[in-house]
Design brief:
- By secondary structure, this protein is mostly beta strands.
- Helix content is 0%, strand content 55%.
- It is built from no helices and eleven strands.
- It has strands at residues 2-7, 10-13, 18-26, 33-39, 46-52, 57-59, 67-72, 77-82, 91-98, 106-108, 112-117.
Length: 118
């Protein structure tokens, strides 16, 4: 009932930047948070960053100081500015929305590939 679409991935050199975008639509009444996970081949899906409707943010330790999450509530959109990219950032990045402050009602986008070359 909630559709999530992300874009902005691609191939970038070490130290480069990308900006990911995500928009939610459908049954988005009382949407609490939006954010990003990433998953490399053979690995689990890890939280990258999240932001609540009130603007509170959380970041994984491996992206602190390099990535910035932001949100446009009027557009039901979330963005991830990714700077100083490293090869270990290579993964599929998934946008999500969540109706619950406890993290139990997530809807996922299809993913966008980020590849960082050395």
């Amino acid at each position: 009932q909630v559709q999530v679409v992300e874009s902005g991935g691609g191939l970038v050199q070490f130290g480069g930047s990308l900006r990911l975008s995500c928009t939610a639509s459908g049954s988005i009444f009382r949407l609490y948070s939006m954010g990003w996970y990433r998953q490399a081949p053979g690995s689990q899906r890890d939280l990258v960053a999240s932001i609540t409707s009130g603007g509170s943010t959380k970041y994984a330790d491996f992206v602190k100081g390099r990535f910035t999450i932001s949100r446009d509530n009027a557009k039901n959109s979330v963005y991830l500015q990714m700077n100083s990219l490293k090869p270990e950032d290579t993964a599929v990045y998934y946008c999500y929305t969540d109706r619950s402050p406890l993290g139990g009602a997530k809807y996922w986008g299809q993913g966008t590939q980020v590849t960082v070359s050395s």
